[in-house]
Structure formats: structure tokens, C-alpha cells
Predict the 3D structure of the following.
Amino acid sequence: MDLTMGYCVGTRPPSCLILLLLKLLATLSQGLPGTGPLGFHFTHSIYNATVYENSAARTYVNSQSRMGITLIDLSWDIKYRIVSGDEEGFFKAEEVIIADFCFLRIRTKGGNSAILNREIQDNYLLIVKGSVRGEDLEAWTKVSIQVLDMNDLRPLFSPTTYSVTIAENTALRTSVAQVTATDADIGSNGEFYYYFKNKVELFSVHPTSGVISLSGRLNYDEKSRYDLEILAVDRGMKLYGNNGVSSTAKLYVHVERVNEHAPALHVVTHIPFSLDTEPVYAVVTADDLDEGANGEIESVSIVAGDPLDQFFLAKEGKWVNEYRVKEKKPVDWESFPYGYNLTLQAKDKGSPQKFSAVKIVHIANPKRDTVPIRFEKDAYEVSISEFSPPGVVVAIVKLSPEPLDVEYRLSPGEDAQYFKINPQSGLIVTAQPLNTIKKEVYRLGVTNKEGDLKTQVTISIEDANDHTPEFQQLLYEAFVNESVPVGTSVLTVSASDKDKGENGYITYSIASLNVLPFAINQFTGVISTTEDLDFESSPETYRFIVRASDWGSPYRHESEVNVTIRVGNVNDNSPLFEKVACQGVISYDFPVGGHITAVSAIDIDELELVKYKIISGNELGFFYLNPDSGVLQLKKSLMNSGIKNGNFALRITATDGENLADPMSVNISVLHGKVSSKSFSCRETRVAQKLAEKLLIKAKANGKLNLEDGFLDFYSVNRQGPHFDKSFPSDVAVKENLPVGANILKIKAYDADSGFNGKVLFTISDGNMDSCFNIDMETGQLQVLMPMDREHRDLYLLNITIYDLGNPQKSSWRLLTINVEDANDNSPIFLQDSYSVNILESSSIGTEIIQVEARDKDLGSNGEVTYSVLTDTQQFAINSSTGIVYIADQLDRESKANYSLKIEARDKAESGQQLFSVVTLKVFLDDVNDCSPAFIPSSYSVKVLEDLPVGTVIAWLETHDPDLGLGGQVRYSLVNDYNGRFEIDKASGAIRLSRELDYEKQQFYNLTVRAKDKGRPVSLSSVSFVEVEVVDVNENLHTPYFPDFAVVGSVKENSRIGTSVLQVTAHDEDSGRDGEIQYSIRDGSGLGRFNIDDESGVISTADILDRETTGSYWLTVYATDRGVVPLYSTIEVYIEIEDVNDNAPLTSEPIYYPVVMENSPKDVSVIQIQAEDPDSSSSEKLTYRITSGNPQNFFAINVKTGLITTTSRKLDREQQAEHFLEVTVTDGGFSPKQSTIWVVVQVLDENDNKPQFPEKVYQIKLPERDRKKRGEPIYRAFAFDRDEGPNAEISYSIVDGNDDGRFFIDPKTGMVSSRKQFTAGSYDILTIKAVDNGRPQKSSTARLHIEWIKKPPPSPVPLTFDEPFYNFTVMENDRVTEIVGVVSVQPANTLLWFDIVGGNFDSSFDAEKGVGTIVIAKPLDAEQRSIYNMSVEVTDGTNVAVTQVLQAWRGYQRHHP
């Protein structure tokens, strides 16, 4: 390892020169922006550097980056000069070249009295110019030099005197003041500590902030002023072993008493007795927690709410702060009916005085607070039925609020005798029947027993139907003829009723069990006939009852009167014959006077007055009819009359004197001879039978009328009294909680009478002492009238009396026992409104602390009480039956000092809702010293700088002792103080340094601290640990330094990882770990490529290196010491990579594609292979040779230069268009390496071939044709040329045989056409010339013989191709004239002509005219077209057929990748 250092002019190893040349080429190829000619520039436009103030002469500035210019040209002679920024001339620029870099080094000048002072100027910005001697190359950069601080100044206080005033009750750790000093140095040099000059226990000063805190309890009486001296000492003094002179400040602390608490007012209002001479309205107590004058109450005053100045505060007692609110003069309560709101405030005698919060006291109006007793209503208005018997409920009057000793009375008066009142309940009931007194309104006065409260009860009597209609006559009689028409008024009856309304409204009716021919108008009482009267068939006298009914309810009152109507007989019936239509025979010799027959007629009106007579048929007088008896006799003899066999038709009638009967006929025949005596026959009319039936009906009707007389007035008599039903119970049980209005029992009673006589009314006539019951007068439903209370009365003996409404009224009564059963209507009641108890927190589990008791007035399970604790607590429980509360879990006053328990007393009602009440039990726990002081946190860990001044508080300990009094007062002590290095304040727990620390001697201290309370009889203590870690203070004075600022080393490429390159070594004048050095690589191009041993400084490879990739590396190595604030220096390391032959030669291209003309002469240059070897040792020893692809030696190569040339062998493109040469390049190094490349030589065409026709002579037979308007193809004669490009482009022309111009040829395709007429037998010979487009042109000719023949006759057989379509494949390199395929046709034994009629792009194909062979007619190009779809036509002269030919490519690649 060589260290190559020197100035800009000097010798360098050749390898370095080569390397730098390569780097120069690389830089030029990259074209760095902003560089001057050849890339002359500084590595950075600005550099940062440092130097300490007060530095000695020739001290170099430090920079973490390389300052300088990279040497693109190693011959450059570079000079640096500071052109500005150094007006005082502190600095000088120097040049140092190492390898390829010219370093810029800046140092302080020597021999200058002026030195750098950071406090005057801490930064310099130098502009440095670099130039090359002898060349026009310049570059500029900036160097920013930071002047580093040295500890050359001391701290100073400003101001130097401080004064504060604090209250004696100031809490521990409170910041009371802050002193301030400043140091013009910066960083650690400007750091300093504050501490007290003398030992101070009550205060502490923070070493860095200067905040003075209170660390002990102040007592104004012991000391009211403290004079403290504070020092500020530079921390750096200790480092240099010089305590120096510190700055001092004075702090005066004044202690003052504090009026901490404001007075507090407590007020208890009071309602004075009306007879008090000096009424007290409130008692006010004032308290102040301060001591001395601060805690004395100066006054309590009324500050608002007394506009009339009627109240004042009188202090009661000399030492007790108790005041009473009294009245100065009689209070005007009328102006303030709701009372007064007095605002009170107290003030103490402290300085400054403190006022209590205002307290508003409501002075209630004593007169307003008593609620006046009055009746619920000034007047009661009720109505009851006129039927009401004694005992019917009238009204309930009540006083509100109702006094316990209430007594209700009825005021004496005319109406009071009819009613009575229950003096306790206020229930008014009837005392006697009201329907006997004809009054509509009763007025009662009700008073209390004192008579000063009154109310009036107005009772309206509801009219009842208690009067019966009365007829004006005791009976009524009338006479009527049977002949009167229907509807004739016979008689009018009239009755009256004293009741009102519907009760007095009368209607009439006929009360009869029989059907009568009479009706009565129910409203007017007029009796009229309803049918024709018939004296003969009906009773002669009608006796019936007319009833007068009112419309009252619940029953109608009725009265009856007897009415007699006699019917007068009138002759209104004609006689009726018993027999009619008689006929008979008599002889001639019938004797005169003889009885022939008899007629009989009956008259209903007059049975004995009927007379008979012949009204016709007896003109000759032969017959005689007895007028009375109706016997028909012969009056004169027939024998002498001269009548023989005669007939007589007699018509006979009967009369009652007024009416004639309908005539009947008697036909008599006179015969000779003897005649039977029963010779007469008549038709019966049954008149007698009908008359008998009428008489029977009349007799029965009279009998019925006589029978009704016995029922007269049967229903109007009150024969029966009311009776209780058998189901009437002797007693009944009733729950006391039945609601008002609830039904208890329906009492059943009956009365056998009808109507009002049988209407039963119900009342309670006695036993209803508390007015709890009422019975419905109409229905007998017994109900709850007022709430029952079993606890007041549990049995009632009710007299249930029933009345009917008959006249005289009848009644009956029974006793009903009401047993009031207990209902759960009373909650358990605690004997006290609340309970409280004090117990020691140390009381054991199970200790009974108090018994609560509740009582329930109910019976049985409803009155049994069970106790429970409602509050969710584990600490207390209660005996459910005795109410004894006991401790159920461990108590701890410090966790909870008092408990407010809700205790429930609940009854055991088995049905319905259980009732309960809740009382509050307050349990107060008295303190026991059972808690040790607890450290917060349980242990401490602090870090302490080793140079902290003595007296500094390094930790504040805090404990929590929840005990009260002395048991909660804690004192601290150190179990071990490490030979007096630490001390603790007994009261505040502040741990102070009492001796200096030294990190190098001891880094850790474990202090044991005990906290002990003052509890009695036993004090408790606890222990905590304070781990004190001493923090090392920076005593690192010296920076590590290297002997040189740069070194050079080298290593071979491909060296294995870990190969040592060189070692750097730095020195540090500090001792201990401040002088221990660690090495590291932190910058440079070789970062990551090399490692450095952090202890030895040996640099080794960390990667496989490749010189061809990177030829050299720069590293920035740091040497850092192990100080608390580490210091470091750097060195630049240049490492050169030495070459090894590890690379094969590389050509510029992997494959070369040169071109050369065919037929070129010898030594024509084809191409020169350019190769180079990255290895420097073999880059100029390359050799070239053709190793394959040149068997005929068409080419030669220069072994040294790689130039390929032609030889004497001629190149023929048509024989071989491309030559593939393999060229091998070999280096000349140790263990040579080689590489192989391809050279593809393309031979360019020369026009050395003429066009060629496939045939010299073409012979073709074609059918004759007519003249055409347009030219039609005849034959295609095409040629091919083996050349390519323009040399192979062929043009066609007819040069002979076309003198008459009948033919023309397509110059591109060679197709001969014509539109002329050709006849059979003619013959044409044409000479066709093909000329290429080369220079010079080449040509050839062919002859076309055309024989014109007759058109073949039409063939009946159609032409068909063998295939519907053809698929042919062609290669792109197939030559012209090569056959692609053949299309065949049936029939095949005739002359055929083929043509391609479509799809032949660029005429690339041709069909041979007579045989159907498809041939290539032009060179093909797959890039222009890859598929041909052609139509091929064939004809025999008349028939035509067409087929499709698909021509596709087979893959072929003619281009090189």
C-alpha cells in the first residue's frame, strides 16, 4: 500500500494515467452540463466548513465533503485563490493533488495578531477561484465557514435583585419566583447552573430554569421574611477544573397572612307563634374557617329585600356567631301577602375583608301559611224523591280541610225536623216520610260545633206519583135505545189528579172482562157505542167499570167508577115464518072449517103480538086464516063451487103491528078421492132455533155482567206488607278498600200487592255510624258511600228497612251485619323520618349498628313487615324480620367515608300489591389509622447529571395517606444516604444532593425512602425506592485527528470479499472512553463496496470489484470517539482497482450486415470489425480471423485491423446472394479470451443477365374470330430475368410480323391482343422482344406462331372442371415459369382454351392456353400480396366453364432479424 501525495506537478503511475484517460473519455461521452471546456469545475457549487474560534495559526478548516476539482486532464496545474469574503485576511487557500483529485484546503494564516472570535462574527462566506496555469480554464465555488464556539465567557444575572411576597398557606412545590442569567456562549458552553449560596431548606431552585419553588411549610409567626442568595456557575468551568468566579443574585421572600376563607352563612327559618312578643323569623349562623382576625365575623346584615326596613339581625350570645331575624316594627303583611325575600351577607375582620356569598331567606307570611277551614261548597243543592222514606241519603257536607274533631250540626228550623245529620261524617238523611208534607223545597242550615262556619242545603222534592185520580161522581148511569147509530155518545165521565206533570195527566179506559159495545175516549172520558145495539140478543143493562189512570212512574195510580147503561127495546125486527114454501093436497070433499094447515111466525121484539093474513090467492074466499093462531081453514065447500082439480096459490104474511114479514106461499091442490092427512110439506127456516140461541146468548151475557160485580176494586187495596227474600244474609264480609260506589250486595224483597201497593223501597234506618254505606231506594243495591277504614271500625250493624207505597204504607226491617275485612291499605311506617349512626371503620363483620322499626296497622300478612336494603351495597345488610342493620363486609373509610342507605319496609300482602315505605339510614365511618402512606408512584427513577450543584432537588416524593388528622400526616426519611450524598426534607419529601456526584466513580444509586404517619396509638409506614442514574456530562475536550487528511490504496479486481486494502489510524488525546475511537465509512463513491473495522480502522472489500466497471473509489472515513457528545474527524481514502484479464474482447455490433457488388475485383473493402477489450493489459493485442462461412475464400480479413476484403474469386449474386461469415476476435492476455461475431455479407446485383423466354417458339391454334370493338387476349408470351430490381424489370414489344398493326402487346405482361377479324386457315407469325431496365440494357426475342382454325361444332356435352375449386400453394422463392398446379376439365378429348379471367393481381400468374397449367409469370412478393383468389375460364369454342383457384403462400423468411 503506497501513499501517493504531491502537488499538481509530479509523476504518476502509468496505470493511473490510463485510468484517468478512460474517465476523461467517459466524462466527455456523458457531456456533463454546466462544465467548462473538458469539464473543469468544482465538485460542489458551495461547501460547508467549520473552525473553532481562538484557533492557532495554520489550523485547517474541516469539511465533511471533498472540496476541490476532479482532474479530467492529469497534466493540469491547478491553483486556488480566495477572491472575496475574507476582508480581515484570516484564511489562505492551498492545493493538494491525490490521484485524480486536486483538493482545496483552507487554513488560518500565521503571524497574525487577530484571532477568530465567534461572538464578533460566526460565519464567513469565501468565494474561491480555481484556474489551470497556462490554460484558459477557470472555476468558482463558495466556502461557508462556520466559526465554532469555545467556552470563553461566564453567565451574568439580570437583574441581580428580586423580591416576592407569598401567602403563608402557599402549597408545597409552588413556584414563587424565577431568577434569570445569560451566557453569551452557545450550546453546552452557554449552559450554567443556579444554586443557593448557603443551604436553604424551605426553598429549592431549579438548576437550569432558575425557578424557585417552595419545599417546606411557611409559618408567618415563626418567620415572615427570607433573604436568599443564588449563584449562577458556568458548567464548562468544571470541565476545565476551574470553579471560577460566579455571578450572584439576591431574592427577598416576604411571607404574609392570607384571609383564605370567606364567611359562610347557614339559615334555619322559623314560623313564630302568634302570641310571641318578639317573634323570631329565622336563625342565622356565620362560620369562617380562617384563624385569628381573618376568622372573626364583623357583621351579618340585610342587604336587600327589606324596603320598609322592618327587620333586623340581633346577635345572640357574646362568643357565638348566631344571629336572629326579628322585626323592628309591625310587619306589613298585607302589602306583601306572600312574605319577604331577605338577602343576607356576612363579612369577616380579615385583611383584605372577605364577604360571604349572599343568602336569600324567605320570611313566610305566618297568616298565609294557615289554610282557612271552610265548607267545600257555600251552598248545596240536591233533589230527592217525594216517595223517600226515612233514612234516604240526601247529601254529604264536608269542611275542607276537615279537622280531626269535626262535628256537624243542623241549624234549628222548621225544616230541620224532617232530616238528621251524622255529626262526624256530614251525611244528611231523611228523618220521616216527605209525601205527607205538601212542600216542594226544604232549606237546611249546617254548621260546625262552634257555629262559626255555615253552609246551606237546599233540598228540592221531586214530584212523585202519590195521588190517585178522583172521579167527580161516585157512579154513572145512562139509558140508550138499541136503535142509536154506531158512535153515538152515551155518557161522559170526568176525574182529576193533584200530581204534577205526567203524574197528574189522566187517561180513561173501560175495565171489563167482556167485550162491550161501548168505547171510551181515553183523553175526554166520553163513552160511545162501537156497534149496533140489539136488545133482543144483548143484555138489557150493561154494568161496567171505567178506570182513570195517571201517567206517573214507576206505576200509574188508578181509580175506578161503576157505569150502568140500560138499553131500550125498539121494534126493529119483522116477524119471521118458521116454515115457508108449503104445498099440499086436499080433496073436493074437504069439510068446511076443516084444519088445512097452520103457519107460524116469530117476532123477536114482541113474542105475542104477531097477526097473520092472506094477501093474495084467496079471491074466491074459499079459505080462512086465523089472524092470531095462523090456522088455515076451509071457509066454504069446494064441491058446490064447480071447481074440479083446481090449484090455489095463497100468499100469507105476518105483522107485529109495524113490520110485515116476508110473504110465504101455500100451494093447495084440490083432488078427487081420498087424501093422506100428511099431505102438506114445508121448508123449515129454523127461526125458532135461532131465536132460542139469541135468548141463550143474552142470558149468558147478563150472567157475565153480574159476575164482574164481585171483582170491583180488588187491585186497589194494599192487602200485603213487603217481605225480605229468603236469601237475605245475616252478615256479609266487605273488603275495606272497596272503592266508593262499589256494589256490596243486592237485597231482594217482594210485595204480593200490585202497583204501588207492591212497590218496595229500601233504606238504612240505623247502624250506618260512619256513613260508609248507602242502599239504592229503588233497587236495594247496597253500595259503598264513603271510604271504609277497618282500622277505625271493623263491624257495622245496619238496619235495613223496606217500605211499600200502598195506602196505608206498610214496612218491614232486618238487621245486616257488615264485617269489614282488612285490605292492604296501610304502608309500613317507620318510627323515625330518618336514621343515622356513627361507627368505627374497623368494626368487624357482623357487628349490629342500629335497629330500624316500622309498623303496619293492617292485619295478618298485610301487617307483617319485612326489611331490606335497597341501596346496592356489599358492606351492610339487614335482618329482614327484626330490622337490625349489621356490617356484612369489610369497611374502609378511605374508600368511602359515609353511606346513605335506603331501607325498605314492605308488608307481606299475599294478594294485590304489597305496600312499602323507605327510610334513609346514614352511616358515618369514624377514622382509624389503618392506612400506611402510599407512595405515588410506588417507586421512582430519576436521571441526574453528574455536575449538578449541591442543594439541587433531584426528586419530589409524594405519598397519599387517606387517614384523617395525625394519621394522615406523613414524615419522610432516608434509610441510606450513601455517605451523606443525598438528604430528604421530612415534610415535603424533596430529595436534595448534599455532595457532588461523579459518573466515573458510581453510575447508579438505589435510595430507600421511608414514609411514616403520626397515627396513634400505632403509626404506620411504608418504603419506596428511588433509583438515581448518574448521567455522564460531556468532558470530551479533544477531537480525534488523522495524521493526514487523505490516503491512497489499491486492490486487484475480482478479489474475494474481505480482502484488506489499507488501514487508517486516528489519535485522541482524551482519556477513558472519550479517547476511544470508532471508525466508519459514511460517504464516497465506494460506500457499500468496502467495510472498515470499527476498532482497527482496516478497510476491506465488501463486494466483488470490477475494474472495467469502476476503476477507482473515494471513501470518507469518520473517526468518532465515545464521548457523551461524540467528536469526530474525517479522512479521504482513494482506492485504485488493479486490472486482471477477465474480459473477452467486445465488438461494437454483435452482427454486421455489409454489402458488396457482385463481380467486385480483389481487395475491395467490405467492412472493418471494431473490437476492444475492457482489460487494460490486453486492449491493444487483439487478433481477427474468419473461422467459418468462407469455404471458397471469397473474402479475406486483416489479422490486426479486422478489415474484411474481397479476393480474386468473383462473387456471383445469382449463384449466392448472401454469405454468412463467422469472425473470432482473440485478446493477447494471459489465459487469452475470445469472442465470436457474425458478418452477413449481402451481394448486390449487377445487370449481367438478359431476359429469357421459356420457349423460343410458341405455337398455338385458336378458333377463328370476328372483329371486336375492344381488344381481346390472344396469347401471353412472358420472359424472366435472373437479375433483381431494375435489372429484372422487363418490357415487351412486337418487332416483326405485325406490319398491318393487327396485334398489340401489353408492355408489362407480354399479353398479345387484337380486335381484328381472323378467319380459319390464316396463319400469323410474330416476333416478340423482351428488354430489361438495367444499364446497359439486355434483351432477347421469341416467335409466336398462331394458326386460326374453324370453330368446333357445338358440343352437347357441357364442360365441367374436375374440382369446384382448387387450392394451390406457392413459395415466395419459386422462380418464374415454375408450374403451380393444373386445372383439369371433362370432356378432355377436345380442343380447349384456358384463360385467367379474374383475381390475377399484377398478372403474376398465367394459364397455358391449351393445357390448363397454372404457372408463375412474374417474380412474387409476399409482402405485397400473400393470397390470390383467381377465376379460371375454359372454352371449347362454344361452351364455357369457370372455376376458382385459391393461391396461398407457404411460409418463407427472406429478411434477417
Remarks:
- The mean pLDDT is 86.
